[in-house]
Structures are given as structure tokens and as C-alpha cells.
Amino acid sequence: MNQQPDISSIEPNGPNADQIDYWNGRAGEQWTIHQDWLDKVLAPLNAAVLQRAQVQAGETILDVGCGCGATSLTLAGQAGPNGSVLGVDISAPMLARARERAKAIAAGNRPEFLLADAASHAFTPAHFDLAFSRFGVMFFAEPEKAFANIRRGLKKSARLTFICWRPIDENDWMITPVRAALTHLPAPEPGDPNAPGPFAFASQDRTRSILQQAGFNHIDITPVDTTVSLGSGANAIADAVEFSTNIGPASRLLADAEPSARGRAMDAIRDALSERRTDRGIELAAACWLVHALN
């Protein structure tokens, strides 16, 4: 395996230094705290990308941006006892949780986890049958170089499969709390739409170009449209508000807000989500790209 000595921290160096710093701070902590919740919210999207990956028994798999390990655990089960999975992430708190979850497996194929930047880590050349990612590849400062580095670790004709977000305006579950918060908070300065972040691959054409420049072939990009549940049952609204204000774009708006403005924004988010409640709870649209390519 491409494992390095187990370390508990990573220095924010190189082109991805800002992302390393970000995911080892409050963001990584919040995603770890809400791991169970995130797994439930993202379940329909997990199913879509795992089905496209078509994992075969005995395969060697790289899980890029594996976070708290949900996908790595599933991939390891699909690859079976003769396969192997290496989950890589820059977030120490999230990887610590992933390792806890792997240790809790009584039997079967356990994934290994590596605290490293997949954009620059020296993977063993021509080693993996599949490079996989669930929302973990949109944060590279130099994506062409990052994907070229990942490709060097793939066998000839190996697969790349990942899922990424389409534009935020198509993702009702994220834009609804953001629009509500902005009725009481100042809008952030417009940034570079291609900067590292959840929507860096929102453009299908840009994503295809990045992969072509990195050397991938037979690139297929298809839309995925589904709904995600932010809360159900008696506590649906409270759960949806807690999730939306701790995870995702709305949480970033609230993080530095003045207390009274933050309170008003929270009330507005609660009202907006309450209006979307149905008999099933708070279910809102999610829109992604499902990307598949060959080395």
C-alpha cells in the first residue's frame, strides 16, 4: 500500500495550503461532528457514483478526499478480501474519524487511510484500478496537475469516477438557506468561479477540459438530479436548520456574522425551510455531475 507513517497533522504548504488550513479547522471539525448526518443526506448521491464506478472484486482503489471514510468502507466491502482501498484526505480530524470507523469493523476488508495531499503525493506508479471520489476533487488549486498526479498512480485503462456539484442555483438544498441568510447578512464579494471550492467543477466544459489536459480519455459527464432529506419527523425543521447552518455555504456566511444579524439570519433560514416542509420532511433538490473517464 501507498501508506506513509501514521501522522496526526499536515502542514499547510504548497498550492493547496489554504484548503489544508481550512479543512483542518472548523470545517473539518464540523464535518466530523455531523458525519452520521452527512452520510444520510448524501446517501442517494453515494448510490449514484458507486453504481457508476462498477467496482470489481479484487480491485485496488484510491478514494480521493475520502473524508470520514463512508465511501472507503463501502468500496472496501465491494472490492472484497482480495482487494484494497486507500482513502486519502488532507483533513486530520476527518481521517481520525475514518480510522475509528475502520477499526470498528469486526471482519472483512478494512481500508487504509493516508493523511496527504492527493494533488502532490507520490503514489506508486500504475498501481490502482480505480480512482474514486465523492465531492473530494473540487478543491485543487491546480486541478490539471492534481489529476495528472493521480493518473500516474493508475494502471493503464484504469478508471476515474467521481461526483461533483453543478451550480449552486441548481442545488436547492444549499441555495435556499443561503438566500434566506442574505436577507440579513451582507453578500460576499464575488469570487473566481473556478477557484477551489464546492462549485469549482460546476461547468461541464471546464471539467472535461481539465481531465483532457491531465491525460484522461473517454470522458463521460452526465447529470444527476435527485432530492436530499435535511430532516424528517417531529424534529424535521430543527434538524434541517442545524444541518444547514453548520455545513455548506450558509455556514460560511454565518461564521463571521455579528451576533444579532446572525440571529436574524438563523430565523430567516428557519422560516425558509419551514415553507418547504412536506409529509416526508424537508426534502430539497440536489444537482450533480457524474464523471467517468479512462486512463
Task: Summarize the structure in words.
This protein is α/β, with parallel strands linked by helices. It has helices spanning about 15-25, 25-35, 35-40, 45-55, 70-80, 90-105, 145-150, 170-180, 205-215, 235-245, 250-255, 260-275, and strands spanning about 60-65, 85-90, 110-115, 130-135, 155-165, 215-230, 275-280, 280-295. Strands 1, 2, 3, 4, 5, 6, 7 and 8 form an 8-stranded mixed β-sheet that branches. Helix 7 (about 145-150) packs across helix 9 (about 205-215) and helix 10 crosses helix 12. The protein is globular, with a radius of gyration of 19 Å.
Question: Can you describe this structure in just a few lines?
Answer:
The protein is α/β, with parallel strands linked by helices and 295 residues long. β2 (84-89), α6 and β3 (112-115) form a beta-alpha-beta unit. 41% of the residues lie in helices and 22% in strands.
List the helices and strands and how they pair.
Layout: H1 17-23, H2 26-33, H3 35-41, H4 43-53, E1 60-64, H5 70-79, E2 84-89, H6 92-103, E3 112-115, E4 128-134, H7 143-152, E5 154-165, H8 172-181, H9 204-214, E6 217-231, H10 236-246, H11 249-255, H12 259-274, E7 277-278, E8 281-294
Parallel strand pairs: 1-2, 1-4, 2-3, 4-5
Antiparallel strand pairs: 5-8, 6-8, 7-8
Helix pairs in contact: 2-6, 7-9, 8-11, 8-12, 10-12
